[in-house]
Design goal:
The chain has about 525 residues and is α/β, with parallel strands linked by helices. Helix content is about 40%, strand content about 20%. It contains 17 helices and 19 strands. The strands form 3 sheets. Strands 1, 4, 5, 6, 7, 8, 9, 10, 11, 12 and 13 form an 11-stranded mixed sheet that branches. The protein has a 6-stranded parallel sheet with strand order 16-15-14-17-18-19, sandwiched between helices. Strands 2-3 form a two-stranded antiparallel sheet. The chain binds 6-O-phosphono-beta-D-fructofuranose. Belongs to the glycosyltransferase 20 family.
Length: about 525
């Protein structure tokens, strides 16, 4: 008796393509990410449902999904969720279960306490644990298998982010007929830092299973290429990496949709800076209800002369402490007063079971309490601190209400908050203070760029932002808006998929995206 895998291999061989090691599924375009675009949520009464407001990635990929029998593979956000695939707003959703142990070892451990701090310039010390690595390998294998089983012959699969860096190679081994893309949403560190990782070679090999590897910044792509040269000795030329075919997995004769030249296949590793759904932010900002709400927010804050805003996940990479230090000193020196200025700090709870995040919360909340206690009056608190997220319309109202937006990240792949602020300011007003360590600073050059470690410099720029004449604010914001509106998330995904599509087997079983 033949197994389904053997029949698939025989059928593929008869069709003249390379055999798959897994029976092909039905989806021609697949996105694989750690989290699904919908989350399984359980309310106070214990009732469970799928919920989620679509982020930029979903908005950009939804039309491609609809036109191309698309599916999204990911985790539903709760332990042990065994769910059959289902449709959500026209997207086929394929949940991958994670056990409580895997959440602890693969997600909180290796992804967010090893890779996250390592890839963000070791702002916090990374922990290296072999059992976390083993869990990472196992979970990556599960995601790769789910993608291999769902993908149609010659499908295009786009893997997202640092939690799944081994998936491209694992998937290629299971399904050599696929075209595989990978996008790294966070920075890729310089080799001197990356080389600390005990599994540095395995991660590079995992990524090189893709045909196209996207990074946020040119510097990230260069860092990756250097790691490839140092660890594998492969040649890189411009955006191309030459991966020798002899180095491929035994048993897989020839790789599928590859650009082959002689004895190597080429992998593209280059920057594709991500963006937001700019037009939808602007549209919301133009709505009367949001503008009224923006006005109301200012009134609720006691109509200060200046509203400053920080919006971040509560993460040590965001430089919230540096921002508070600068602001606190300006208040202490009498250069600002609580009557005139309010800082609204939205700190979205994140990864709350990871020790470094617990410590950060205590540190930030202690600082906020001290500043409010020392410099507040009965009527005015210098900081309005919000430890929760807000719906999108409330966020947009906050952006409109803010005269100065503070983005002081110590390291950030891109920082979409900076782009959201700009997209909302259809009135050409508002000043963006932006860290040069955020990827967005490569594009948003007319923001007031700062080094958040330089507290004196940051203080000067905050004062400059508060005092900037309207003409200058307008000129800067216009130029920022041009960039963000022209380079939105659809353009980002189209560019990536166009490059990736050039790797597909056109004319044979390979899928061409519509
Ligand atoms: O920036 C990387 C990222 O994974 C984003 O995709 C995500 O929004 C954020 O970090 C938070 O991630 P999570 O809550 O899934 O750990």
């Amino acid at each position: 008796m033949t197994t389904p895998e053997e029949s698939a291999a025989a059928a593929a061989a008869a069709a003249g393509s390379e055999p798959s090691l897994v029976v092909a599924g039905e989806y021609s375009f697949i996105v694989v990410s750690n989290r699904l675009p919908v989350d399984r949520v359980i309310d106070a009464e214990g009732n469970a449902s799928w919920a989620g407001s679509p982020g930029g990635l979903v908005t950009a990929l939804e039309p491609v999904m609809r036109k191309n029998e698309g599916a999204w593979i990911g985790w539903g956000g709760q332990p042990d969720l065994e769910f059959e695939p289902f449709d959500s707003d026209g997207i086929r959703v394929i949940p991958v279960p994670l056990s409580a142990d895997e959440i602890e070892n693969y997600y909180e451990g290796f992804s967010n306490d090893t890779l996250w701090p390592l890839y963000h310039d070791v702002i916090a010390p990374p922990s290296f644990h072999r059992e976390w690595w083993e869990s990472y390998v196992e979970v990556n294998q599960r995601f790769a298998r789910a993608a291999a089983e769902a993908a149609a012959e010659g499908a295009i699969v786009w893997v997202q982010d640092y939690q799944l860096q081994l998936v491209p190679k694992m998937l290629r081994e299971l399904r050599p007929d696929l075209t595989i893309g990978f996008f790294n949403h966070i920075p890729f560190p310089p080799y001197g830092i990356y080389s600390q990782l005990p599994w540095r070679a395995q991660i590079v090999e995992g990524l090189l299973g893709a045909d196209v590897i996207g990074f946020q910044r040119v510097a990230d792509a260069s860092n990756f290429q250097r790691a490839v040269r140092r660890l594998k000795g492969y040649v890189t030329k411009g955006t191309q990496v030459e991966v020798p075919l002899v180095d491929q997995t035994p048993g897989v004769r020839v790789f599928g949709p590859i650009k082959r030249q002689g004895n190597f296949r080429t992998v593209i590793a280059r920057a594709f800076p991500i963006s937001i759904d700019s037009a939808s932010f602007e549209e919301l900002a133009r709505s009367a209800s949001v503008q009224e709400r923006a006005q109301q927010i200012r009134e609720e804050l006691g109509n200060p002369k200046t509203v400053m805003l920080g919006v971040d996940r509560l993460d040590y990479t965001k430089g919230i402490g540096h921002r508070l230090k600068a602001y606190g000193e300006l208040l202490a020196e009498g250069k600002l007063s609580a009557e005139d200025v309010t800082l609204v700090q939205v700190a979205n709870p994140s990864r709350e079971r990871v020790q470094a995040y617990m410590e950060l919360r205590d540190e930030i909340e202690l600082t906020v309490g001290r500043i409010n206690g020392d410099y507040g009056t009965i009527a005015h608190s210098p900081i309005s601190y919000q430890h929760h997220g807000f719906p999108r319309d409330e966020m947009v109202a906050l952006y409109l209400a803010a005269d100065v937006m503070l983005v002081t990240a110590l390291r950030d792949g891109m920082n979409l908050v900076a782009k959201e602020y700009v997209a909302c300011r259809f009135d050409d007003d508002g000043v963006l203070v932006l860290s040069e360590f955020a990827g967005a600073s490569d594009e948003l050059k007319r923001a007031l760029l700062i080094n958040p470690h330089d507290i004196e410099g940051l203080k000067e720029v905050i004062l400059q932002a508060i005092g900037m004449p309207k003409r200058d604010r307008r000129a800067r914001m216009r130029s920022l808006r041009k960039r963000v509106l022209e380079h939105d998330v659809s353009r980002w995904s189209n560019e990536f998929l166009q490059v990736l599509g050039s790797y597909a087997h056109h004319g044979s079983a390979g899928h061409e995206l519509r």
